[in-house]
Specification:
- The structure is a single chain.
- This protein starts with 8 loop residues before the first helix and ends with a helix.
- The chain contains 6 helices and no strands.
- It is mostly helical.
- The chain has one domain (2-229).
- The radius of gyration is 20 Å and the shape is globular.
- The protein binds protoporphyrin IX containing FE.
- Protoporphyrin IX containing FE binds at residues 17-18, 21-22, 24-25, 69-70, 73-74, 76-77, 95, 99, 102-103, 106, 159, 162-163, 165-167.
- Protoporphyrin IX containing FE (HEM) binds at residues 17-18, 21-22, 24-25, 69-70, 73-74, 76-77, 95, 99, 102-103, 106, 159, 162-163, 165-167.
Amino acid sequence: MTLFSGAAAELWMRWVHYIFGILWIGHLYYYNFSQTPYMAEADAAAKSSLMQKLQPRTMFWFRWGAMFTFLSGWAMIGHKLGMGVPLASAWGTIILTGGILGTLMFLNVWLIIWPRNKIMIESAVRVAKGEAAIPGVADLGARAAIGSRTNTLLSIPMLFFMGSASHLPLTLSPEKSLVPYWCTFAIISGLIQLNAAKGKMGPMQKLGGTIHFGILLTLVLYFAMEYLAG
Ligand code: HEM
């Protein structure tokens, strides 16, 4: 049966990848498009209820969605390499660009967003019991919000390159080195990641600014790839 043959292995990985990718990015967009504006208007009781009862549930699917998207994505890259597809190809350059952006987003979920949300949830539970809030919880929330906005920003080029790997007829020039492109990519993504860990909201304060910045970043990375390596 074709579906269970070795040739269909990649399809199984893709299927898993799509389902967990939707689970993850669906929650990310829910937080940024709906929950954040809701929290800005909600009264204290509604905010407390959301943090205690809803946030643990959404955070569960969000972080495990991220985990299995990440694992299935790298499994597919491993599978392609095993089939002899070189990384220093147009496919490899494009999928590594999307995959590294996705990996930075995965790290932001597990190292910035979730650890802080865990404390914010615990603090809301304590306050509801009449105890004091955990000190510094507002600063933790602000950093988690920057991490979350950074992921919304990165999701735009990440999905562009993810979808382009097999569908964009870009050819790389055999006489050009990939080093200038990868240096440009490392500087740009490194600065954005540094900002997520230590910096400010800047243009990501508003959702519209985040989306415009994401589209600009996509174009910059695309043209860097086309002109430096194509
Ligand atoms: C976390 C790191 C990630 C890695 C390493 C990764 C890796 C991959 C790989 C290797 C492919 C196959 C590319 C091809 O040959 O067409 C792929 C496809 C895809 N990925 Fe990811 N991915 C990651 C994150 C994500 C996320 C967060 C999403 C969000 C939904 C996503 C959505 C997709 C989609 C829609 C495709 C299909 C592209 C196509 O068939 O044209 N990926 N990914």
